[in-house]
Amino acid sequence: MNYRRNLLITGGAGFIGSHVVRLFVNKYPEYRIINLDKLTYAGNLENLRDVESKPNYIFLKEDICDLVRMLDVFTKYKVDGVIHLAAESHVDRSITDPFTFAKTNVMGTLSLLQASKESWANDFDGKLFYHVSTDEVYGTLEFDDSLFTEEKKYDPHSPYSASKAASDHFVRAYHDTYGLPTVISNCSNNYGPYQFPEKLIPLFINNICNNKPLPVYGKGENIRDWLYVEDHARAIDLIFHKGQTGDTYNIGGFNEWKNIDLIKVIIRTVDRLLGRETGTSEKLITYVTDRAGHDLRYAIDATKLKNELGWEPTLQFEEGIENTVSWYLNNQEWLDSVTNGVYQKYYEEMYETR
Ligand code: NAD
Ligand code: TYD
After folding, report:
1. What count of other Cβ atoms lies within 10 Å of the Cβ of residue 99?
2. In CA terms, which of 1, 22, 102, 311 is 20 to 30 Å from 54?
3. In this structure, what CATH number is given to the domain that contains residue 307?
């Protein structure tokens, strides 16, 4: 079958990537969606069970850092668009293992940029390299600062945000130097189904269910802006199709929460859905040593995306949290397996012996 587009989505087995792949496979049967993922601890093909048998979907277990393999993939599948999500994404891991973050997030992105440039050989008509990035590149805000706009100077503090900032710079450099058609979006904290339970919301849901301590860093006063993951996927769809080449778009929920307040909402929701007396699990809150270099506040101004492309978050936070907690409570098997590595072993064996 001749597809209208051959779209490479990297990191499609991860949290946000799986929602993007699902959206594109279902919404655009005329596109071939090539999900390329190394299946690190964070990648899980169970996240895509419902789309894996669709005719317009292909999965490739590959490492984005391998330029030779990337060039092969571009040629073999006639890739004409990239949505790049593959990354190491957890700040705490970046503090203990910064080199892996530099390798995947910087060198991996560079290798994909180079593969795009070489494969498209200056015939950039109809091509696009879309880089998915984070608001953490902008650094941190004080409580009374105004929100991050696209003009905010980069000021990353963690090895994670430094590696994402470097990758954003390389994307712009390929646009400005070689004319590669690129677009970047910087999004705030996502939450929703299929998020690996090392990030705040799924970790705390899991711990509450298992009556384990809830480790609150510092005083719990840090602020994050939270966006439901499907709203992020919709924004990516819109920017991919309607965004201005060479441009940057902020994506956010206009939904700032102090960690400790958010944690109490999660506790109330889990307790209620488990039939426990409301607030029972507050006793699990345990204040622990703060994260090194912990950014105080992230807050995105997504006005440009609203004014230029008409995007707005659709889900109210209360509804998003309810959906998310319910999903984790109903998918205990998924949660258990990703925490004990069963899926990882299964897929390692399956793809090693192909
Ligand atoms: P995730 O950690 O859940 O998933 C990352 C995926 O990338 C995994 O499937 C993993 O196997 C894959 N991967 C890692 N290294 C790879 C490599 N070398 N080659 C191929 N695949 C590799 O991450 P996520 O939370 O879904 O984030 C996706 C993207 O969105 C990242 O680029 C992240 O920086 C960005 N982002 C995330 C958030 C958030 O709140 N999670 C917010 C803004 C932006
Ligand atoms: P996280 O989900 O790791 O996202 P990010 O650091 O990229 O914003 O953390 C969200 C916030 O929650 C952040 O301020 C750190 C805090 N946090 C805790 O207090 N305890 C935890 O166990 C974790 C994982 C995070």
Report:
1. 10
2. 311
3. 3.40.50.720
